[in-house]
Amino acid sequence: MNKDIMICGVGGQGTVLASRIIAASAMEEGFTGHSAETIGMAQRGGPVTSHVRIGDQAFSPLIPVGGADLLIAFEPSEAVRNLKYLKKDGFVIVNRIPVKPTSLNGGAEYDGKAEIDFIRSKCRCLVVDSDELCAPFGSPKFFNVAVLGAALGSGELGLKEETVRNTIIKIVPERFTEKNLAALTAGMNVTSRGGACSSRLQSGVGDANR
């Protein structure tokens, strides 16, 4: 398998852990895996981008423009900002809940709706709601694993559920393991909610929370 996955968001959302889980899971399945981060004032809400490259065709740790098979976006404006990295037939999983990053200047109101509409018009996508997904776990910090579950459920991640679960058990501190595994399941359930999501994804756009 050769697959390039970009993860983007805002400092503090857990994008780096998500990239570690993907890369480690890929290596557990026998693939070559590389990961690299570009971080801008991450501790102050700056943009964070993680590049995960799986397979023997990854000669550089960074994904070139137009090279990503999958873009996992923790924040709508960061999804738009990094959309240039997506392949023409690539897939986007994006959080509908906005977190105003430092890449957005000025005091204008920002609810993320325009960004979501733009993404829907440009590519295949799955829109998820971090507030809804993380409500049972009491913290938005579990979204990084929940969104990996959505990627697994969509079939776009290219990894086995069992492998990802085992990687979470190895990487995540034991006191958080149970909730993270439950968050992964919650994310996977998003793509089967109502039994109709998969057909919308194949046709071009999808929204798991309509």
What does this structure look like?
- The protein is an alpha/beta fold.
- It contains eight helices and seven strands; from the N terminus they run βαβββαβαβαααααβ.
- It has helices at 15-28, 76-81, 113-122, 130-134, 143-154, 161-171, 174-190, 197-203, and strands at 3-10, 33-39, 47-54, 68-73, 86-95, 124-128, 206-207.
- A seven-stranded mixed beta sheet has the order 2-3-1-4-5-6-7, with helices on both faces.
- The longest helix is centred in the last third of the chain and has 17 residues, at 174-190.
Features:
210 residues, Pyruvate-ferredoxin Oxidoreductase, domain 3, 8 helices, disordered C terminus
- Give me the number of helical elements: 8
Q: Rounded to an integer, what's the Rg over CA atoms?
A: 16 Å
Lateral strand order in the biggest sheet: 2-3-1-4-5-6-7
Strand content: 15-25%
Number of strands: 7
Q: CATH superfamily assignment?
A: Pyruvate-ferredoxin oxidoreductase, PFOR, domain III
CATH class, please?
Answer: Alpha Beta
pLDDT < 50 stretches? 194-210
Helix content: 25-40%
* Termini gap: 33 Å
Question: What's the helix-strand series?
Answer: EHEEEHEHEHHHHHE
As for the CATH topology, it is Pyruvate-ferredoxin Oxidoreductase, domain 3
TL;DR?
The protein is an alpha/beta fold.
